[in-house]
Description:
The protein is of the alpha+beta class. 54% of the residues lie in helices and 18% in strands. The chain has a domain at 129-176.
Amino acid sequence: MPGDIVQFVGESRALQLFGVKLLGFNADNGKKLLLTLAFIAIVLLLSAGVKRLVQIFIRGDIDDVHRRFWTTQAVKVFTAVLLIIGIASIWFDDPTRLTTAAGMVSAGLAFALQRVVTAVSGYFVILRGDVFSVGDRIVMGGVRGDVIGLSFTQTTIMEMGQAPAEQGDAPAMWIR
């Protein structure tokens, strides 16, 4: 019968699919999942709207480009923090569960995401330490260029030179 395919059974109202009780799936988790998806959608839409407003209101000379870049970076960081706090608030109403989950996540990060964590840390060092910014001319990996973008895991440069191994004279350059 069609009613027997999907049911909520027992005291915890666990999800039962084709007579098999699915571990960890219940009505409460379903509500949290839907609320999480709605929260993520709303925050990302608001973030996109704020970024669009920044593009509309800040345009013009080079100072406005820097102002737009830093404002956009602030919106990205604020969005990430808001998503983390919001999702943690939805899923972890008990502090002990949050502590356990944070310990497991940090252990996983330490092992599996070393490069990403290092890249994000480097991003904050670059921004905080004033190492370089958008518009600066730098040498990275033997290539000269102007910084045209900074993100959490990537620095984008407009290439203006080549590595010394590819060109005999030092310093290696295309533009003189």
